Amino acid sequence: MSSWHIPDGLRERYLEGTLEPALAMSVDAHLGGCADCRAAVPYDKDWLDASWARLEAELITPRLSLSERLLRHGGVPDHLARLLSATPTMSRAWLAAVVAVLAFAVLAAREQAEFLPAFLVVAPVLPLAGIALAYGPRVDPAHELVAATPMAGPRLLLTRATAVLAVSVVLAGLASPLLPAPPGLAAAWLLPALAAASGCLALSSRLPVPIAALAVAGVWLAIVGTGHSLGDWLAVFGPAPQIGYGVAALLLTYRFYRVSTR
Ligand SMILES: [Zn+2]
């Protein structure tokens, strides 16, 4: 320590805040290294404590996003809520796209009944797009981080895919009653959507998630296209195919479960 100490006059101007910045900074620097001068600076312990607490709250306590607060409020465990809401901003774009597509499909079907198939065909594809966008190194800023945790891989994929599916099913479910169709037909997209999502999960053990999603979407469009070319688009939404979608959803989910817990 040098023998120089802050003179009273300088300290007073420092405390009043009237020192020019360069001088104030050198007083700061000296205070940082000199206990004697620090002792001469009066301070309010309560004010200091409060200010540390405020700093701590700002820097250490994570700021919860709206979605995270909603999830926690809905009873989702903290760590899952954090993980789900750390999904990339792209999933917000996906959400907006889902709402837009569903609204457009409903409006078109109400305008002209022959547009009804569009809704039923598109609804199972929407969760696939969401799954593809909500997972993977290229779109996920948290990917590096979560890849190093036990939640990496299939479990994380399942968590996010389930969230994506739940959101799509709720949104399409809200839109369905607005369709100009009997309830059974208006909800005919549900089992295909479940089968498609579980197919995507099952394929993801062999293919990158976006490719798996594309492949499953292709299969679904081929099924619909076949029905259309046979002259009856409704056929692929009939009772027998619905049972098929349901069974496929169960088997594919089981397969994904077996592969991911191996
Ligand atoms: Zn000093």
UniProtKB/TrEMBL annotation:
InterPro entries: Anti_sigma_zinc_sf, Znf_put. It comes from the Bacteria. The keyword Transmembrane applies. The chain crosses the membrane at residues 92-109, 115-136, 157-179, 185-204, 211-230, 236-257. The keyword Membrane applies. Residues 14-38 form the Putative zinc-finger domain. Keywords: Membrane, Transcription, Transcription regulation, Transmembrane, Transmembrane helix. This is Zf-HC2 domain-containing protein. The lineage of its organism: Bacteria, Bacillati, Actinomycetota, Actinomycetes, Streptosporangiales.
